[in-house]
TrEMBL record:
PANTHER family: SORTING AND ASSEMBLY MACHINERY SAMM50 PROTEIN FAMILY MEMBER, TRANSLOCATION AND ASSEMBLY MODULE SUBUNIT TAMA. It comes from the Bacteria. It comes from Treponema porcinum. GO terms for cellular component: cell outer membrane. This is Outer membrane protein assembly factor BamA.
Length: 805
């Protein structure tokens, strides 16, 4: 039997062994995560920073084995965002897989901006200053960002002529965050009273004045002096000489003389540009070396200057830029280009040799979305024809920007490629600025009714949310009401289904009208008198429409194919013992509910830059609809064809007011042709015919929709569009010409100028998608017997900006 002492020794040895085992086990498991595959990276402590902004940085590390160098790389990238004051990581086991681990970052964000104020500004309003700073309440407070805004405010004042301005800021922490106050000492302004040139023999003083941004004080010009603009204008003058081949031109000096005008409390300045022009040079050619991906002939096709042409520096640089863009557009982001000038001062010639260092294509590593507070990331990402792992393509990215603008969810979209984790990887950062997607549309228009006891105004109201809960779905409800017509409409649509660009829509309309129809009045002679004998009746009904379509994005345009069905139930109420209408479409649905069904298919090609407010491009759509599906139940059977053509041409786009506004004009043209082909031997009512509504076609002709109807209509319009405030309101001029014929074939063999209804005039077009009103003043005329017959007065027309899709 062992003694107590021996038991104590054995126990001590056992405990020592146990301690060593535990220590060894602990040491072995303290770095258990080394080499484990990262299955997830999550964050704790996020308040103002969106999860998408950090997950975009860390997403590429998921699926990689954990190691110290990888961890340091992640940490460096997170700190580089500038959002966090402190970051603490820890690892935990993945409960779904013992071979994987979850990496968690506990972060402490920088304080957020609670408010931004301006003090000391007397001559420039707060709203103007706010437009020139990027920081907003709710943003993460960063000294570096506020310093940039401080500089931006200083630059803005300098552009306004306050060259002695001083701007500083203070930041005060409070319970809500950081209160930022910009302190401004404006100083006095400097105004240019005279600009002259000396030494110019090739170009006149008037021509050179027109090229520079500095202007003398005058009508609609404040004459503000900006020292930075002076340097820019010197380069502008030299660049203008270079476009005419004067490669040795230079500005020798700019003489500045100033004086104080005490009465106006300002400094007044005169400028004299001293120019040395030199000789004119011609182009001696370009040689290219190092290119293997693209042929020399292909690259040379971008250089529009020919040997012997007067050398144009701008034209040559544009060609060189297009040449390099060919590489960038095909994903060769890391190429290097070394143009070397060959200038012969004796022969007055200039040539270039271009050396190209070609490298492999760059691929997109991550796509990071910033700025979206409502719209879900996937709603944005699905509109981009690129994804992580794809070859970087400028054309595809621009196509994605067009898709995003066409959603009308964003007022600004800025794509920016930044360096990825390796030399041939880039991160695509897309910064968006969301706009309101909830709209209230309302208005009124004249109905053109003939009963003097009726109120001749139709009211219109529509509520729509085109980005419901940020999911990219649209829901709307609308009401139309007048003394004779009332309707209630509901609709739902979405442009993506099953993660594919499949569009789907449903709409329901309930309607009622008190209207009239021509009465079949037989005279004693046995002939039918149909001259303006009307009777009144009520019409009730409901219509349900469904559609489904698919969108493709080939390089030349957006291709969309849509099919759908409309089912309508209608009932016309009147005394059949007293009235017999001429229109069979009214008679067949008298005192009983009847069906009207139709199916349609359409195909469109869209090359417009932005579909709701295009500046360039074209659009074409063909729609075929078949009406009448159930024999012996429905009464009208016919085919209707609608063809639409649009084209847009930017006439000019001139920056004015220092680039703060562009004077732009766009010429828009539209042609629409509708034709109806009834089945021989079937009924076809007047209510199914095409007509001039005066609101969307033949604008101004609002009183002829009952009289001028047929089976074919040709509608043309031309508009000159000039935006006044970009994206808000524009000034338009329009000219419409519409013709309606009884039979489609008459459009081709019996159409004359006397068939057309003409209208023209000015208008205001609201460019805000949520307020698509078009206010017009129209004058009308027709041609009869070779003479122009004018309408007696101008007419106000309320229309809407309808986007064809």
């Amino acid at each position: 039997m062992l003694s107590f002492g021996k038991w104590r020794k054995i126990a001590c040895v056992f405990l020592a062994c146990a301690f060593c085992s535990v220590s060894a086990f602990s040491q072995e498991n303290s770095d258990w995560y080394i080499g484990k595959t990262i299955s997830q990276i999550s964050f704790e402590g996020l308040r103002s920073v969106k999860k998408s902004e950090v997950s975009g940085v860390t997403g590429s590390f998921i699926g990689k084995p954990f190691e110290d160098s990888l961890y340091n790389d992640i940490l460096d990238r997170l700190y580089a965002l500038g959002y966090f004051e402190d970051i603490e990581p820890y690892a935990k086991h993945d409960p779904k897989s013992p071979d994987k681990m979850i990496l968690v970052f506990t972060v402490k964000e920088h304080a957020v901006i609670s408010s931004i104020e301006f003090k000391g500004n007397k001559k420039i309003r707060n709203n103007e200053l706010k437009d020139n700073v990027t920081a907003k309440a709710g943003d993460v407070f960063l000294d570096s960002a506020i310093l940039l805004d401080e500089r931006a405010l200083r630059d803005f004042y300098i552009k306004k002529g306050y060259s002695n301005v001083r701007v500083s800021y203070t930041a005060e922490e409070n319970a809500d965050g950081v209160k930022v106050v910009f302190h401004i000492i404006e100083g006095s302004g400097t105004v240019i009273t005279s600009i002259k040139f000396s030494g110019n023999t090739v170009f006149s003083e008037r021509t050179l004045k027109g090229k520079i941004s500095l202007k003398e004080e005058g009508f609609m010009r404040d004459g503000a002096f900006q020292r930075a603009s002076l340097e820019t204008d010197k380069q502008t003058i030299i660049a203008y000489y270079l476009t005419r081949g004067y490669a040795d031109a230079r500005i020798v000096d700019v003489i500045q003389e100033s004086s104080i005008n005490e009465k106006k409390a300002r400094e007044e300045m005169s400028l004299v540009f001293i120019i040395q022009e030199g000789e004119q040079y011609t182009f001696s050619g370009l040689t290219i070396s190092g290119n293997e991906i693209f042929s020399t002939d292909k690259l040379m096709s971008f250089i529009k200057l020919k040997n012997g042409d007067v050398f144009n520096q701008t034209k040559f640089q544009e060609g060189l830029s297009n040449l390099t863009n060919l590489y960038y557009e095909n994903g060769y982001m890391s190429n290097e280009f070394y143009p070397a000038i060959n200038k012969d001062s004796e022969r007055h010639t200039i040539g270039y040799s271009l050396s190209i260092v070609e490298r492999s294509r760059a691929h997109i590593e991550n796509i990071i979305i910033k700025g979206n507070t409502k719209t879900k990331d996937y709603v944005i990402l699905r509109e981009l024809p690129v994804k992580p792992g794809d070859v970087f393509s400028r054309d595809k990215i621009m196509a994605g920007m067009r898709n995003l603008y066409n959603t009308q969810y964003f007022s600004s979209i800025v794509p920016e490629p930044v360096s990825g984790s390796e030399s041939n990887l880039v991160d695509l950062v897309i910064t968006v600025e969301e706009q309101s997607t909830t709209s209230l549309q309302f208005g009124m228009t004249f109905t053109g009714i003939e009963d003097p006891d009726d109120f001749p105004i139709s009211l219109f109201f529509k509520w729509q949310n085109s980005n419901l809960r940020g999911l990219g779905k649209t829901i709307s409800a609308g009401v139309n009401a007048s003394t004779s017509d009332q309707s209630v409409d509901f609709s739902y649509s979405q442009s993506w289904l099953f993660n594919k660009p499949i569009q789907f829509s449903e709409s329901l309309s309930l309607f009622h009208s008190d209207t009239s129809a021509l009465l079949a009045n037989w005279l004693a002679s046995g002939t039918l008198d149909d001259d303006y004998y009307y009777y009144g009746y009520e019409s009730w009904g409901a219509s349900l429409s469904s559609s489904v379509g698919h969108r493709w994005n080939p390089p030349f345009a957006i291709l969309t194919v849509v099919g759908g069905m409309t089912n309508t139930v209608t009932d016309n109420l009147y005394d059949q013992n007293l009235y017999i209408p001429i229109d069979s479409g009214v008679n067949k649905y008298a005192e009983r509910f009847g069906l009207k069904n139709s199916i349609y298919a359409s195909i469109s090609l869209d090359d417009r830059d932005i579909n709701y407010d295009p500046s360039t491009g074209w659009f074409v759509n063909q729609r075929l609809a078949w009406y009448g599906l159930i024999p012996d139940v429905e009464h009208e059977f016919y085919l209707r064809s609608d063809t639409k053509l649009e084209s847009y041409l930017k006439l000019f786009d001139i920056p004015v007011a220092g680039g703060y506004w562009n004077f732009k004009a766009v010429l828009a043209a539209y042609t629409g042709f509708s034709a109806i082909f009834p089945v021989p031997g079937t009924l076809f009512g007047s209510s199914s015919k095409v007509y001039i509504d005066g609101m969307f076609n033949g604008r101004g002709w609002t009183d002829i929709y009952n009289d001028v109807r047929g089976k074919a209509m040709l509608s043309n319009r031309i508009e000159l569009r000039i935006p006044i405030f970009t994206g808000v309101i524009g000034l338009d001029g329009f000219f419409d010409a519409v013709a309606v014929k009884e039979e489609p074939e008459q459009m081709f063999n019996d159409l004359s100028i006397e068939d057309f209804y003409f209208s023209f005039g000015p208008g205001l077009r609201f460019l805000v998608p949520q307020f698509p009103l078009h206010l017009l003043f129209a004058n009308k005329f027709r041609v009869k017997d070779g003479d122009v017959v004018w309408d007696s007065k101008w007419q106000f027309v309320l229309s809407f900006n309808m986007t064809n899709k």
